[in-house]
Design goal:
Blueprint (H helix, E strand, L loop, with lengths): L1 E8 L2 E8 L4 H8 L19 E3 L2 E3 L13 E3 L12 H8 L9 H16 L16 H4 L2 H7 L10 H12 L4
Parallel strand pairs: 1-5
Antiparallel strand pairs: 1-2, 3-4, 3-5
Helix pairs in contact: 2-6, 3-6
GO molecular function: 2 iron, 2 sulfur cluster binding; metal ion binding; oxidoreductase activity, acting on the aldehyde or oxo group of donors
Organism: Modestobacter muralis
Pathway: Alkaloid degradation; nicotine degradation
Length: about 170
Amino acid sequence: MDAQVTLTVDGTRHQLPVDTRTTLLDLMRERLGNTSPKKGCDHGQCGACTVLLDGQRQLPCLALAVAHDGAEIVTADGLAPAGELHPVQQAFLDADAFQCGYCTPGQVCSAVGVIEEAGRGWPSHATADVTAELSPEQALTHDEVAERMSGNLCRCAAYVNIVPAVQQAAGVQA
C-alpha cells in the first residue's frame, strides 16, 4: 500500500508516494539518490546512516518514512549547502578523523548532534552527576565525547582522532 510523504532533505522538498514499509534510509538512497547516509548494518547498530531528523540525530534505517511525513532531514552532504565545510567536517579533516570514510557521514552528523546536545546541558551515561548543570567543557570531555559517540562504529578504528575532532569543532580544549 502506498502513502504520500513530504520530506525536506538537505533543503530540498520532496513529495512522493512510498510503500508504507519503506524506511527513511531506503527512501533517501534508492528514491532520492542521496547516498550520504550509508547502509551499514540496516539494524540500528552501527550508526553509519545517522542523520539529523528534525534537528536531532537519528538512525533512518529504523524509521519508517510514513512516520515522518513533513520532517526535515539533514545529511552530512547538507551540513554545508553553500560549499564551505561545516565546522565538524573541517575538524574531521584537520584531525584526520577518518580512514576508509564509510562511517564518516554518520560520524559527522552524530558529532553535530552531540555538540548540540552538550550545548543544551544534556547528560550522558558517562556523566557523574546527571542532575548537575553541565557546561559544554564538562559535557565534552574525552570520556563524555567517547560515550556520546559510542553509537557510531568505525571498522578502521579512527576513534583516537574522532574524539579530538568533535572537541575541536565544539571549541573545547582537549
